[in-house]
């Protein structure tokens, strides 16, 4: 496993890390035993960073991380997020009283004394511009409740704004072969500002595994069913904002990337890690097999210059006009 510095912090995190939305809930059936085996396999392979949120399974993902990392708190870094358990448009959700409560509840579920990276969970731009929530995070940091703080954003505009907030040390963004916009301005400016980049949804909700076809279906409790068109939250969080059938069609045209790299998933994440501005990818998983497969990204062959240009043109000519929602 290779490690990269998280912005200008002291944290060195595994370039392949993992997100825990899927094991918490919202991606169909999940089995705790399988999830814990997956977490254990990841740590055995050198993964030292996991991303979660207080709303993943109403805190269940945090509880699973507590079990998996017990006794390893100094070596395994955990990032969690807050605000979406409340009304994300209400200023009270970001008050000192509310944020302290969110933080204490996460600490309790994680069974930790400090959160390594505490992130605002996709707040509206107006909340970021108000700025009060950053003052609260500064207090929690000074008290030792959190080590660093960052923001999970939906749009490039939000990310660029956060780069002007001195205490922000990391941005979590949607970035994959179907969502290349951040490369243009956000990533180089984040690098210059010493802000780390965590890449969520690197496989576009599974589209970039190449395993779906137009007739694929998803369980009722899977966001790929109930949020396919942005019914519950930002449509970009599901299939990178693409209509499902169009996403399947576009993924089929990318099948060539798997040649010499194992499969499309490994190739898709290798493409992300080939960008020097990226700190890590945080794919999801439900079991040890999926963890094992994602770990193979680190050994996949990098892309040649001509291939990178081909993928960039593919995005500009065939993908970006089909993306729905702000990004």
Automatic annotation (TrEMBL):
Any one GO molecular-function label of the UniProt entry: oxidoreductase activity
Q: Which Pfam families match?
A: Aldo_ket_red
All residue ranges annotated as the NADP-dependent oxidoreductase domain in the record: 16-314
Can you tell which superkingdom this protein's organism belongs to? Bacteria
Identification of the protein by name: Aldo/keto reductase
Q: Which organism is it from?
A: Paenibacillus ferrarius
């Amino acid at each position: 496993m290779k490690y990269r510095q998280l912005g200008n912090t002291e944290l060195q995190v595994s370039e392949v890390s993992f997100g825990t939305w899927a094991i918490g809930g919202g991606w169909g059936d999940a089995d705790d035993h399988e999830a814990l085996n997956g977490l254990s396999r990841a740590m055995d392979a050198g993964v030292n960073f996991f991303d979660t949120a207080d709303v993943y399974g109403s805190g269940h993902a945090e509880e699973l991380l507590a079990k998996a990392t017990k006794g390893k708190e100094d070596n395994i870094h955990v990032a969690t997020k807050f605000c979406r358990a409340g009304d994300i448009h209400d200023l009270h959700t970001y008050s000192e009283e509310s944020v302290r409560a969110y933080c204490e509840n996460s600490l309790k579920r994680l069974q930790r004394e400090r959160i390594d990276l505490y992130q605002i969970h996709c707040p509206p731009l107006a909340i970021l511009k108000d700025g009060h929530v950053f003052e609260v995070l500064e207090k929690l940091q000074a008290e030792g409740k959190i080590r660093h703080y960052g923001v999970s954003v939906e749009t490039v505009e939000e990310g660029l704004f956060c780069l002007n907030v001195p205490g922000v040390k990391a941005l979590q963004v949607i970035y994959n072969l179907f969502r290349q916009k951040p490369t243009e301005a956000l990533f180089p400016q984040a690098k210059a500002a010493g802000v780390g980049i965590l890449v969520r949804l690197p496989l576009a909700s599974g589209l970039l595994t190449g395993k779906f076809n137009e007739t694929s279906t998803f369980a009722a409790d899977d966001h790929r069913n109930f949020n396919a068109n942005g019914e519950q939250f930002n449509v970009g969080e599901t299939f990178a904002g693409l209509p499902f059938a169009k996403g399947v069609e576009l993924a089929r045209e990318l099948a060539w990337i798997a040649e010499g790299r194992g499969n499309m998933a490994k190739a898709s994440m290798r493409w992300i890690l080939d960008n020097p501005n990226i700190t890590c990818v945080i794919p999801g998983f439900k079991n040890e097999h999926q963890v094992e497969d994602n770990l193979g990204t680190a050994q996949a062959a990098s892309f040649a210059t001509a291939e990178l240009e081909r993928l960039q043109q593919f995005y500009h000519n065939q993908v970006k006009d089909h993306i729905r929602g702000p990004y």
